[in-house]
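# step 3/5: fold
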Amino acid sequence: MDISKYKILAEDREIFNIPKYSDKEFRESLRDLLNASGATPVILCEYLGGSLDLVNRYIYGEVEIPIDRLPPIAKFFGIESSYFLEYRVNKLFKKLEDNPDLIDIFLELAQTHGGSIKIKENTNNSEYAITEIKRGLHRIPEYSGDVFSYSLRVLLEASGATLEELSEGIGVEPIVISRMLNGSVGMVKLEIIMRISYFFNVKPEFFSEYLFLVLWELVKAKPKIINSIFDIYGEEVGEIEKKIRDSQENNNQHQVDLQPMKQNYINVRTTS
């Protein structure tokens, strides 16, 4: 199949406003590319080898696009896979999984570009608070380092709360709590982690997933943040930090000291 006629050329980018990086959701980005290229869903479907119904569901946002489907779609249009926001986010999070120390650095870059979030605090239930005595008895560290399901089980056991009491305290159905405990819910929402942390009176950073979720919230709130991050994500850690320092020095309105992220730029506060 000859797909050369559907390549997005420089003049197409200018006429149809196709940037290097799209800040839109996949369905909108795909519509823009189809419009600029003159291709139809049928033609794209023939190239990908899938069903037309599935392609249409991608276009209308009825199903989430698998990350491994983005490169062939990008190839069809003659663009880089990084054009798609979902691809860049996926690459970034894989980088963070391999290099957790980069989370604070990337969050500082996000702050430099004006990103911040606010989360409503919930009332702490002191009856089930993880006190220093409970920490000692159950050997609970300040930061878990384990997967969410295990971390939650540790807190639940140490607090003396029942599954039903936790459910009532954070406003989540017991069946969902059960799924959290056995690790069958996928990624837990940031708001839920915040509620749980207040219920047990621990820092939300106790959960390993917390910082990833904070960064994800920033990315969703300000998609352009991911563009700056993606441009340097392949660099070595030291080089990334240097570039962020340079960025801050050149932007007096958003200068931030390289200190722990929770003290400087995320508008989330908790007590322990």
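# step 4/5: annotate
Residues 166 and 192 are 12 Å apart (CA to CA).
# step 5/5: archive (pending)
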